[in-house]
Amino acid sequence: MKNNGFLNISISTAISWLMKVIMIGMLPYAAYKGDYLFAVATIVAIALSILPSVVERNYSITLPFELDFLITLLIFLHTFFGEWLKFYDRLWIWDKILHLYGTAVVSMLAFMIVYTLHYTKKIRLTLPLVGLFTITFAMAVGGLWEIGEFAVDKIFNKDTQNGLDNTMWDLINDLIGGTFVAIMGIIYIRYSKPDERKKLTRPLGEVFGIEKKINRIRKHLRKRQ
């Protein structure tokens, strides 16, 4: 028997959309303060966070990772905690943690692209090429990010790059994160079974016992008919 409504929503999906709602709620205040760059970046990031679910729906496949949740969490940690609560200023390691985590998420996106193309038989790649694409994609996005920071510093007279050493360590973290995800992706493709690729989160109704209660009520009503 299939569930209806919110009973089909996984916990990770519910949390993901809660974070999206909170970030959307930050937009009017950012516009009021005149921080239009932050507002635009947040809108773009929220749009990107929806990409995994769009891919799943269009190609009718179950992706191996909770990409929507991971992407939204990254954006939330950056916007709400990093920028809004000033964690970047309070904790010097916050930038390094988020950069390494962000690289891992970007690498997962790269793996998702290769996985989707391979699954739909658009292209056929060997496992080493899948890993190489993942690492290269992560490094490319990391390089574009550094170029973006450089442009923001020059145009808006800021200091987001914090010098050459910080930029180079960011690129090294891109390499580390991309390599780790590439290895894990190769292992996943090689050894996983179709049934193991299903999402592991349980429906909200199952977690809180709502589904059982509804089914019990339905059985009781059927007996009285």
Key words describing this protein structure:
225 residues, mainly alpha
Describe this structure in words.
With 225 residues, this protein is mainly α. It has a domain at 92-192. The chain has 10 helices and no strands. It has helices at 11-32, 36-49, 51-59, 67-84, 87-90, 94-119, 127-156, 163-191, 204-207, 210-224. The radius of gyration is 21 Å and the shape is flat. The two termini are 19 Å apart. 22% of the residues are buried. The model is unreliable at 198-208 (pLDDT under 50).
- Number of distinct helices: 10
N- to C-terminal separation?
A: 19 Å
Largest sheet: none
**Low-confidence region ranges:** 198-208
Shape: flat
Radius of gyration: 21 Å
Helix content: over 70%
The mean pLDDT is: 76
Structural class: mainly alpha
Question: What percent strand?
Answer: under 5%
Topology:
Layout: H1 11-32, H2 36-49, H3 51-59, H4 67-84, H5 87-90, H6 94-119, H7 127-156, H8 163-191, H9 204-207, H10 210-224
Helix pairs in contact: 1-2, 1-4, 2-4, 4-6, 6-7, 6-8, 7-8
Compact summary:
The chain has helices spanning 11-32, 36-49, 51-59, 67-84, 87-90, 94-119, 127-156, 163-191, 204-207, 210-224. By secondary structure, the protein is an all-alpha fold.
